[in-house]
Amino acid sequence: MKVAIHPGWKKELAEEFEKEYFKKLVEFVKDQYAVYTCFPKGNDIFSAFDHATFSNTKVVILGQDPYHGPGQANGLCFSVNEGMKLPPSLQNIFKEIEQDLGKRVPESGDLERWARQGVLLLNATLTVRAHQAGSHQNKGWEQFTDRIIEIISKEKEHVVFLLWGGYAKKKGVKIDSSKHLVLTSGHPSPLSANRGYWFGNKHFSKTNKYLKDHGKDPIDW
User: Fold this and answer.
1) CB burial string 144-166: b at 16+ within 10 A, e below
2) Residue 89: C-alpha distances to residues 41, 94, 186 (Å)
3) pLDDT in tens, 149-194
4) Of 50, 65, 110, 176, which residue is the catalytic one?
5) Residues 6+ apart with CB under 8 A from 68
6) Could you report the average pLDDT of every consecutive run of 10 residues in the chain (221 residues)?
7) DSSP label at 104?
8) Three-state SS for 123?
9) If 0-12 CB within 10 Å is exposed, 13-18 middle and 19+ buried, where does residue 50 land?
């Protein structure tokens, strides 16, 4: 079975693509896209892996679902297409970067610029039906993305994992923290951020310090 994904990731995930659960997942996604409006666009489902290749990945940010409104999702967690209004969580991410690093809040919410630098912007579920959050959960995507986290943890060294909120923290249980940096905080959503669980975590400066300490280029956030 062929999956349109970057060759470096395809090599790492070849066995996964042949498992029965993944074959069923592919059929489910094909059926959903044929009958309903789903996001992101079909050729963007694996875009996180096309921009942050396996060899290039040095930071992993975990999200949950793609955005389910028209024109928002582009296959990168927390990211929206150029020209779209910034969602509340992304606004809070940019505000924390402004406080942490002194960088101005950008107008564009397209985070491809991070992904190209080796930030894997990974949603736990890679597809969703329009206007129905969580509609493609528990169909196999979570097992697939759990495996991705395991492979990165096992095969690579000195990767920074940013786990924001309870869901992401649970998904990160198999990360080997003895050879990677795992940073946790509340979710950047207004509900969590306004309660004091997000702002001030300084994850972006901490990430860059760790990367530099291990001979890697920092991220231009």
Assistant:
1) bbebbbeebbeeeeebbbbbbbe
2) 22, 9, 11
3) 999 999 999 999 999 999 999 999 989 999 999 999 999 999 888 8
4) 65
5) 39, 128, 129, 130, 131, 132, 133, 135
6) 81 96 97 97 95 97 95 96 95 98 96 98 97 96 97 98 95 95 96 90 98 98 98
7) P
8) strand
9) middle
Euclidean distance between CA atoms 197 and 164, whole angstroms: 10
Residue with tokens 């999702």: 73
The CB-side HSE value for 23 (13 A sphere, CA atoms) comes to 5
Angle, helix 141-155 to helix 7-17, in steps of 10 degrees: 120
SS3 49: helix
The chain-wide mean pLDDT, for the chain, equals 95
Output phi, psi for 162, to 5 deg.
-105, 110
Strand-pairing partners, residue 155, are: none
44 is catalytic: no
CA distances from 218 to 114, 200, 208, 211, 221 (A): 11, 20, 5, 6, 9
* Nearest C-alpha neighbor of 204 from the set 95, 76, 109, 125: 95
The pLDDT of residue 89: 96
